Recover the amino acids of this structure.
């Protein structure tokens, strides 16, 4: 165990990731590299280098939004827990998650929709800009798509990385098309993989770029 | 979007996972299958079927411990956040994580060790049984190894699934050897992969087996 200080371990990890990316012939554009590498650091899974999709300049755009203290709304308390609140609060930012609020569950049950959909509706009703960080629920992405296309709503940014086997691939393809059409910046992981840990890693990468 | 109810989506996901495991020629022993499948469900990564290592009867043993309300100590608040507290508290269980306590950071800094090591020392000083759920820090596993070998300490169970590129593979190999030697039941993911999401998925699988 030659490394024990967290900052040394992280530096050595990123050195290994860069070296193995080179060996594998993986090349990532400059502003995307810190995000892709941190996702690989979080998952030990180089597949993400092929599946993470960025709108033009997305990583820098996300960093700028966080620097301005733009509010984050996420669909899982696990992603909220994984986001570096020390860094975030230094820029005046905060992370909201409505999923576990009691009246969200009851409203979802009454209306026969998911808690994630109710949560996204509440987020979309807030004034001011919101960065959406979706690590779990395809229905959250579909609700955002509807809000964008039918209500003229404009998220400031969409991180779309649900994981899973049902509705997930399609929801990410559809929100990407919608985001492209309406010029909404995004980072989306195409395919089945993703998760709360990946969602948090993307935000933390953008924070560490500052 | 033909599935919207969470329980239907989960059932359909497990059906797809079982089908694809069969197609890939993956066969998992009976009591391990619910754990392995839930980890795949959480990560969309079938690699785990080859790398998850179980001591004999580990999944059932873990379930029994949780049914008895055995305390869980974890090395990340993200894993704590991901564990199904509704199910857990029904059996009288609780999840503790000492990582973010202020005096843990200061003690770690003073002694030149990691916060995870200080957290594990505190956990090992508690009376009664503890299930350790390590999703992040190789040093947590190394501290447990030392406590077992040098102080005669006996964890009730070890879930060892840190993720990463430095110290991670070795720490999992070493704690597995120690656990085998001293008859401590374990679920360990060999290799680089793992994480807080995987740690929580293993506990939730054991809870859902009840």
């Amino acid at each position: 165990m030659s490394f024990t200080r967290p900052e040394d371990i992280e530096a050595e990890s990123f050195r290994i990731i860069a070296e193995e990316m080179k060996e594998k012939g993986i090349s990532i554009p400059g502003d995307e590299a810190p995000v892709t590498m941190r996702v690989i650091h979080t998952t030990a899974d180089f597949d993400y280098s092929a599946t993470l999709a960025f709108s033009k300049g997305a990583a820098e755009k996300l960093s700028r939004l966080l620097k301005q203290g733009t509010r984050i709304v996420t669909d899982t308390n696990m992603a909220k827990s994984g986001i570096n609140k020390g860094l975030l609060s230094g820029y005046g930012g905060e992370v909201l998650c409505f999923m576990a609020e009691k009246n969200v569950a009851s409203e979802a049950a009454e209306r026969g929709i998911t808690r994630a959909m109710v949560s996204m509706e509440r987020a979309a009703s807030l004034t001011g800009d919101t960065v959406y960080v979706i690590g779990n629920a395809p229905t959250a992405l579909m609700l955002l798509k509807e809000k964008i296309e039918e209500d003229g709503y404009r998220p400031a940014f969409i991180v779309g990385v649900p994981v899973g086997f049902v509705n997930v691939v399609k929801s990410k393809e559809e929100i990407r098309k919608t985001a492209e059409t309406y010029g909404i910046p995004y980072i989306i992981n195409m395919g089945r993989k993703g998760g709360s840990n990946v969602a948090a890693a993307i935000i933390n990468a953008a924070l560490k770029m500052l």
Summary: The interface with chain B takes residues 1, 3-4, 6, 9, 12-13, 16-17, 41-45, 77-78, 80-82, 112-114, 138-139, 142, 163-168, 170, 191-197, 200 of chain A (CB under 8 Å).
